[in-house]
What we know:
By secondary structure, the chain is mainly α. 63% of the residues lie in helices and 6% in strands.
Amino acid sequence: MRKILLAGATIAVAAAVPAIAESVQPHHGGMMNKTETRTEVQGDVAKMFGHLDANKDGFVTDAEIQAVQAKHMEKREAKMEQRAEHFDPAKMFARLDTNKDGKVTKAEADAVRASHAQAKGKAPHGADHLFARVDTNKDGAITLAEMQAMPRPKFDPAAMHKGGGMRGHLFSQADLNKDGKVTLAEAQTMALQHFDRADANRDGKVTPEERKALRKSMHAPQKG
C-alpha cells in the first residue's frame, strides 16, 4: 500500500517519469496508459513541484516530501479504517438480512446490491460466485457464522509504512548536486533523462508500449 501512497509524496522526484513513476505507483493508470511528450513531462513536474514546495523557496527538501507523504498517509489510513468497518461481518450480515430471520438468501443479497447500485447511479452486477463461496454448506442461505468465516481485507498500518527507501532513493537521484535540496531544474532533468530512456524511437513521445518495454528491461536480470 505504501507504494501507492508514494505517488503524492515523491511525484516531484519521480516527476511524471513513466518508468519510475509506475514502479512507485502501480495503480496510477491514467499516466501509464497515455502517450506523453517531453513538454507535458516538464509541465507535470512543474505543477507537482509547486505542490511540494510548501515554503515556496524554489527548493523541495526531503522534509517537505515527508510532510506531504504524512498527509497522504493519514488520508489513506482513514479510508482503510472505513473499509475495515464496512467489511465487519456482523454489520454486513445485518445490512443483508433484511427480513431479520437470521439468514441471508441470494434474493436478499441481490436486492441489497441492486438498491446500493441504484443509489450510486450504477448498473447492478451479480456476484453469484461470491455468494456461493460464503454459503459453505450450500443450503442457499448465508448465516452469520458463515459470514464471519469469510476472508476479509486486512488493515495493516505497518505495511503502509514500508518503502521509505524507495522515496529516499528517488530524492537522491533528483538531488544532482547533493545539497539536500531538489530544484525544479533538477527534478525536470531527472524526469527527462528517464523520458529519453523510454523514448526508443526518438520521436519526442513516450507511448504505453515504450514504458512497458523500458520497465521490462529494468527488471530483467543483468548478464555478466
